[in-house]
Amino acid sequence: MTTWEFLWYIPNEVQPGHRGDDAVTGHNSLDTLTAQALALERHGWRGALLGTGWGRPDTFTVATALAARTTSFEPLIAVRPGYWKPANFASAAATLDHLSGGRVRVNIVSGQDDLRAYGDGEADPAERYARTREFIQLVRRLWTERKVTYDGDYFQVAGSTVVPRISARPGRPHPKLYVGGASEAAERVSATEADVQLFWGEPLDGIQERVARLRALGEKLGREHPPLEFGLRITTFVRDTTEQAWADAEAKVAELAARQRGRPGRDGHAGAVGQRRLLDLQARGEVLDDNLYTAPGKVGGEGAGTTWLVGSAADVAKSLRRYGDLGITHFILSDTPYLPEIERQGSQLLPLLQTPG
């Protein structure tokens, strides 16, 4: 039986009110973030993805602080190859993995950020993914080999040994490496180098097509690692009843639309292939499959906030199971306000998903 893993999302934002979160004093303090991580532990979540980007608190520092204040919480640490050198990152992650008892996960992000602000000069998408390939290859080797020599187009090391050494665990020779992206260049990297390919909230037919394509691509390109796993990053909008969920979802979209009026247009993320795929769904209808709501994308929703799974816990669990039937085994869910939804969905939704069908 395939094991499913459920993680949440901690936004790691300087500005309060992220995607409708409660705008409270100290929203990003260590105490507030720790309260979320501890609630995740209590309510059955494996851990949480920590958002990254220039202009946010440093993701690795936040992950380290949360690991120190928790016992089972697993941070999925988002990092950018243009921000870290592979050897520096491999050493930092190995150290945190050692100190936390093997709780580190890594999300490699290749999308553009404020590149000039931190000295990254690589803006071409194809080149960024070529660099990501080398980053993953080198980090993996540094975690599993000693005296590594690597002479790539972007990164070079000679006789490099990372200490402390990564401790291999059942089914986990090293921290899992998650990769997103929907472009051809991104999929070629995922198919051959990633441990987990992350998808945003597309309809079932889109996910089915991409899973099949990535599996075939891995075979064609000669994947050398264990089979690629798949994950879904999506907003789950859960209420006690189906009717209440849709009423609240429509009200929240109306509120988001009111806030969006007069604001500048989308930033550069809208140009990413994966984001365009989500926005293009609006032409297919406001509700796809049983309960995939596309309206949030019309009012400024981006990334995992572009589409929502809406309904009762039973409705949303049914939909997530259908994604599981297509090969999804890693689920990264969220809704706002973050802390109450950790508790609500941990109490109502996760118990329905503990035994995959």
Question: What keyword list fits this structure?
Answer:
357 residues; 8-stranded parallel barrel; two-stranded antiparallel ribbon; 10 helices; alpha/beta
Tell me about this structure.
By secondary structure, this protein is of the alpha/beta class. It is built from ten helices and 13 strands. The longest helix is centred in the middle third of the chain and has 20 residues, at 125-144. The chain is globular and about 60 Å long. It starts with a strand and ends in a 9-residue tail after the last helix. The relative contact order is 0.13. The model has no long low-confidence stretch (mean pLDDT 92).
Main beta sheet strand tally, sense and closure? 8 strands, parallel, barrel
Distance from N terminus to C terminus (CA atoms, Å) equals 9 Å
Count of individual helical segments: 10
Give average pLDDT, whole number: 92
Strand order of the largest sheet: 1-2-3-4-7-8-9-13
**Share of helical residues:** 25-40%
Structural class: alpha/beta
